[in-house]
Amino acid sequence: MNKNSNQKIITQILCIAWLIFTLFPLYWIFVTSFKSPIAVTGGPTYLPWIDFEPTLNAWHDAFSGSRGDFFATFFNSVWISVAASLIAVVFGSMAAYALVRFTFKVRLLAGVVFAASGMSCYILAKEIFDWKDTTSMGFAFLCALILSVTSNRLPLPGPILRNNDVVFWFVSQRMMPPIVSAFALYMLYSKIGKDSGIRLLDSFAGLTLCYVAFSLPLVVWLMRDFFESLPIEVEEAALVDDVPRWRIFLEIVIPMAKPGLVAVTMITIGFVWNEFLFALILTTGDWQTLPVLLSGQNSYRGDEWWAIAVANIIAIAPMLIITILLGRMMRSGLMLGSIR
Q1: Is residue 131 part of a domain?
Q2: Which of 3, 11, 210, 212 falls between 20 and 30 A from 19, CA-CA?
Q3: Rounded to two decimals, what is the model's pTM?
């Protein structure tokens, strides 16, 4: 047996060992969900009908509602993940395309004007006009936006931020610990509910909007790299024929970018599906998601691993499907160039 054959056999053995190492936790969760309490607490057992007698009691408890409403929380996670991901991909892809095909010049002093005018207008609305907090914030944001955009057109001194700086600003939003904005969002949603009667806490709209903002930096970052890999000659030919930019984007760029859009949508769904902190703080019951329900599976009797295993299988099954689909797309070349 030659040297290449030995290396091939060793490589195959190592790959099989790594496969067993990575799949064993999934197998362990799966078999644990069919164990009785005695089979779990009596020592490690591995093979059903050989080491232990499988039972469906843990699954029955989960779907009967005695361990929490898995059906409601599962579909809450589905609706919120899909809606937030689609909205984030729609707006994020437009922002990413603009950052690739257009040149932006944002004066740093215009940002200072935005911050200063926003605080000034808020204080003005509160102290002089005695408006409510939410009305004052809306007024301050509108005034700050108009003043900053207007001042950005003036020849102000100081640094000028360009496309790469704007992209870095987007990505930097994910560098901030989520706990910093979670409590601020809770206070904002609570104020809006009290002042206007619009319910955002423990609501589909409130959690979806939160996850849209949470996902936008990721979408802009990934889709920008994909749009940069698309050939610009097709768009230039359409511009020569006097085709409007919006038609170029919808009828030329989007069809070419479809593999990237699908991939980024799946990745974004995965991020939203597994998010825990915002769902914990912004929901109380009606729109609770699976990660929050999973965190409460410990009972007063201790860790009931058979029930926790069932809950984990329900939570990870959709992500396994998405991972398999992404893997097949990568192997078939459908995502070529979508993620660098």
Answers
A1: yes
A2: 3
A3: 0.85
Residue 178's H or E segment, with its range, is: helix 178-196
Residues 80 and 189 in one domain: yes
Residue 187 has pLDDT above 60, yes or no: yes
Give the residues across from 160 on adjacent strands: 107
Per mean pLDDT, which range of 70-84, 190-204, 291-305 is the poorest?
291-305
12-26, 40-54, 227-241, range with the lowest pLDDT: 40-54
> What does the DSSP assignment read for 115-160?
HHHHHHHHHHHHHTS---HHHHHHHHHHHHHHHHHHHHTS---S-E
CATH of the domain at 274: 1.10.3720.10
Expressed as residue numbers, the domain containing 197 is 75-103+162-300
Query: Same structural domain for residues 216 and 256?
Result: yes
Phi, psi torsion values for 109, nearest 5 degrees: -65, -25
CB-based burial label for 182 (10 Å; 0-12, 13-18, 19+): middle
Given a cut of 90, whether residue 230 has pLDDT beyond it is no
Pair (189, 287) in one structural domain: yes
**Pick from 284, 300, 301: nearest CA to 292:** 284
Are residue 86 and residue 99 in the same domain, yes or no? yes
CA atoms of 81 and 289, how far apart (whole Å): 10
pLDDT digits (tens, 9 = 90+) for 322-339: 878 777 766 555 444 444
Paired with 52 in beta bridges are 48
Q: What is the pLDDT of residue 301?
A: 52
